[in-house]
Amino acid sequence: MSDSAKPPVLLCDYRAPAWRVTDVELEFDLDPAATIVAARLAVERDPSEPAAPLRLDAEQLELLDLRVDGRRLAPEEYRFETDALTILLAVPRARIETRVRIAPDTNTALQGLYASGGGQSRFLLTQCEAEGFRRITPFPDRPDVLARYTVTLRADKARFPLLLANGNADGAGDLDGGRHWARFVDPHPKPSYLFALVAGRLESIEDCFVTAEGRRVRLFIHAEPDAIGRCGWAMQCLKMAMRWDEERFGRCYDLDVFHIVATHDFTMGAMENKGLNVFNAKYLLADPERATDDGYRHVLAVVGHEYFHNWSGNRVTCRDWFQLSLKEGLTVYREQEFESDLASRTLRRIEDVRVLWRAQFSEDAGPLAHPVRPDRYSEINNFYTATVYEKGAELVRMLASVLGRDGFRRGLDRYFERNDGRAATVEDFLAALEEANDVRLSPWLAWYAQAGTPTLEASERYDAAARCYELTLAQHTAPTPGQPRKQALPIPVVVALFDERGARLPLRLDGEAGTAERERVLPLLTERATFRFVDVPVRPVASLLRGYSAPVRLRWNADADDLAVQIRHDDDGFNRWFAADALSRRLFAQALASGAPDARQLDVWTRSLAQALADPALDPALVAEMLSIADAGSLAEGLVDIDPDAVHVARARVETALAQALAAPLLARYGELSGATDAQAVEPAAQARRRLRNACLAAVCRADPAQLPLAAAQFAQARNLTDRLGALSVLLSAQAAGAEEALDAFAARHAGDALVLDQWLTLQAVQPHDETVEHVAALTAHPAFRWTNPNNVYALVGAFALRNPRAFHRADGAGYRFVADAVARLDTLTPQVSARLATAFGGWRRFEPLRRALMHRELQRLAARDALSPDLADIVGRSLA
Ligand code: 0A1
Ligand code: ZN
């Protein structure tokens, strides 16, 4: 096997930096082919490290000059290797000056300084998280080195009229030869991963926001000329986020200016560089013609997320990359709350839980499982995972629910106050929450340290004579790589009890006095506990884990009729959906085991969904979610020896049974919703109606292909992208006559619009048809697809590998071969993207023997290649271990 994986970095090896950098002055002479970066660093030795040399990370830099306190160094006074510049210094403080040359134009890794866009609007920008700054200038590139930055940019004025770096503007002017300069001062000390610059010919929109502290902040969004007209929604979202963070968490913005820049060339969603956020255009641009409803909501969420990082990440940053979830889990939680307060709480919760189950539970169940705070990594880029982000947010959510809204706010205030301007740890976070609430939270550290998804087993017993209801809860976590034995975790189980008509029942535990509460948290702190409720007049229907109060797999053989009561009556919208989902999973399991779902339970399920569909008071988006059963990957989670074809067939049976049972009411509701006159409105209510209408259309056409003309008509008449794509998806999955023409018409209508064409690529990549792999391979030659563009790659190859289990797992191995070839090709271009795609093979041991062998062979084929990137070597190595 290739030996290109880096040696692991261990949490237990952490040492504070021997040298600190207090001030940084950077000067850039920008040029796409060869940029010169001059740096002046004021460095100070930690007195407890008298012998330590100054080690500056440095990658892919051409060193032109090196001076200490003005004197050029002799060769024996420093070492310049492939990853570091090491200087032997006898003094306690010094001024280090370096000059390096870098080549943004050929930087396809998209880390460090690189070029984006094409032709006239090709511009320069940076991406430094996690370890990109070392590709710009030699520096101790670790998050616990916080410095003040002054940055001067020089460039050709005609090609790069806009020059930006972090912080407040501090002068600009013209130079000889058609060049110009601009200087920026960031008064807030920051780690190098938050550095950013942008230079190019971009257009801008401007707005302004006055903070609760009275600071007048100029807000700018910059984008390529053809995109600037689509930035208005993002600007509105930014102002909503700024106000919300003040009102909900007391956090105000702290510079005179805030910039956002859009790029089509980005490996992730967006980046929170101080005062200069960079966004993947996918999460910034929106208009009714070119963005879906989901697109609008994603812009709201991501603009919020990056803005909220200004406190949770920037003002208080991470001591080391093991603490990544300290900023990411907390910021995802804040983003979730923001969208929940502004749009629909129930819908956001359902979507988050679906993502957790699909992406995080599967990660936890395979060789790439790791704790929310990993204790080792060999390539940090591979730890921007569902575990660190989504499970991390669940841990914050549990703490918030245990402390209550006010207690959590007090704790968070304390955390920001104590750690402002510092690089903190998970322990610092828990300590602040503890202190502000006078509670002990140390048992929660185990949630951060232990990988794997706990299973929560529930069983119940009702004693009518004693009017007593007993609920027994037990937890178990299966071993994960490197963690054979698991400990019990604190699990907050929120419960309510109902009678069969949905009336609340008291929740008094044995031995308690006082009035009964309507909903309460049962703390499961050990492996097993029984909770005994008294004065329960009838056999109750229990609503467990309300709002999904802990990230566990609930195993509970609830009576189907009880689940139906919950679907009908639960006053927690999430748990109504949760009950419907539980019932559909049960039906799926029956169909998989015996070819057909149990007729009686199927009847219970379809009847309760029929009632939901007929209920005018119910949020249409919630009804739509109830009608959409889990994807095949999520349904197969927990199975062994998976046969993807059998999973597909069983899922389709359940889906079709529902569509057929509800055909008439679905058609009627589709008709009612079709009269809407708000085709271009983006408020949550209008979005919810479109969501339900598209769910009805899909089911109606599934039940009876003779209804496909409805989809064709919707496609032809659509006045927004959500309706157009919804209809196109139905035509494609039914392989309807006219589907090809519709695809072509769509591509022609949106020619040249990269983001919309990405959705067009995705729609084709996720079709569970036999020939999808050949079709996807052919699409890589389409003019809308470039291997160097991560959005294109994720839209086509990523969607195929990660969201189309039927086609990816085609029994002849063609899907595996195609993806492994793509991974190899991408590894020479954008290793981060190649590594992420390779995770599609991570679950190989859970498939039936034939697929298992085929997937294993592709992993071995990748492992045997020469010169794998450290990113890919890490994923392949851990997958095979
Ligand atoms: N901190 C960003 C995510 C991010 C991470 C790495 C990147 O480049 C390699 C880019 C962005 C966030 O959470 O939004
Ligand atoms: Zn983030």
End-to-end separation:
12 Å
Q: In percent, how much strand structure appears in the residues? A: 15-25%
Unreliably modeled segments: none
Number of strands: 33
Tally the helices: 26
Q: Catalogue the ligands.
A: O-methyl-L-tyrosine, zinc ion
- What's the average pLDDT? 97
**Radius of gyration over C-alpha positions, nearest whole angstrom:** 28 Å
Strand order of the largest sheet: 6-5-9-3-2-12-15-14
Structural class: alpha+beta
Main sheet record: 8 strands, mixed
Net shape: globular
GO molecular function: alanyl aminopeptidase activity
Cofactor: Zn(2+)
InterPro entries: Aminopeptidase_N-like_N, Aminopeptidase_N-like_N_sf, PepN_Ig-like_sf, Peptidase_M1, Peptidase_M1_dom, Peptidase_M1_pepN, Peptidase_M1_pepN_C, Peptidase_M1_pepN_C_sf
Enzyme class: hydrolase
What can you see in these coordinates?
There is one protein chain. By secondary structure, the chain is an alpha+beta fold. Helices cover 40% and strands 21% of the residues. It has an 8-stranded mixed β-sheet, with no helix packed on it. Strands 17-18-19-21-20 form a 5-stranded mixed β-sheet, with helices on one face. The protein has a 5-stranded mixed β-sheet with strand order 29-31-26-25-33, with no helix packed on it. It starts with 8 loop residues before the first strand and ends with a helix. The model has no long low-confidence stretch (mean pLDDT 97). It binds O-methyl-L-tyrosine (0A1) and zinc ion (ZN).
